Amino acid sequence: MATPTDIIRSTLDTFADELTGSLPDLFAGLVFLVVAYVVIRVIRTLVRVSLSRAYPTDQQLIVDFVVIIVSVFLWFGAALVFLDVVGMGAIAASLGTATGFVALGVAYALSEMIEDTVAGIYLLKDPDFNPGDTVSAAGITGTVTAIGLRKSRFELPEGEVVVVANRDVESKWTKDSDGSPE
């Protein structure tokens, strides 16, 4: 019969053997993470510089949004590769599949928010839709005071400010060319 000392010694020996056997994988994983960090930083910088040239400074919100999305995807991919490098490929595959299903559910749940955001990007890029313009959209006519990623603000002739979802604005709007309401 094994004594408690023998059990502890056997457990520690097994642990030491497993740790020694996995050190090359852990080192490779650490090296991969360092390289991934550098590559992701370079890609983020390239994306930011490219988009900053394409968008004016008052539309940096779009640049920041795209850089965050790119970063999330890159880091998630790096995490899955890291798991595979350290010998947990089955966990990486399961995690990738599960995340795909969760992302599908989240995208469906946030579809209106995503629609607002995409419409907001279009409105921000549209040279005919700017703050100060008099516009008719979503059943109102007013002066555009602010354009955000999800909502636009209009000041009505009476001074009231109305906030409208960008999907409702972008779907059908008209600009008053002479500055007076249509």
Give the fraction of residues assigned to helices: 55-70%
- The quaternary structure here is single chain
Largest sheet: 5 strands, antiparallel
Shape: elongated
Number of strands: 5
Q: Identify the strand order in the major beta sheet.
A: 4-3-2-1-5
Mean pLDDT over the full residue set = 90
How many domains comprise the coordinates?
2
* Tally of individual helices: 5
What does this structure look like?
Strand 1 and strand 2 form a beta hairpin. By secondary structure, this protein is α+β, with helices and mostly antiparallel strands. The protein folds into two domains: 106 residues, no CATH class; 47 residues, SH3 type barrels, CATH 2.30.30.60. The protein is elongated. The longest helix has 51 residues. A five-stranded antiparallel sheet has the order 4-3-2-1-5. The N and C termini lie far apart (96 Å). It is built from five helices and five strands.
Question: What would a concise description of this structure say?
Answer:
The chain has 182 residues and is of the alpha+beta class. 65% of the residues lie in helices and 14% in strands.
Key descriptive features of the protein:
182 residues, alpha+beta, SH3 type barrels, 2 domains, five-stranded antiparallel β-sheet, 5 helices, 14% strand
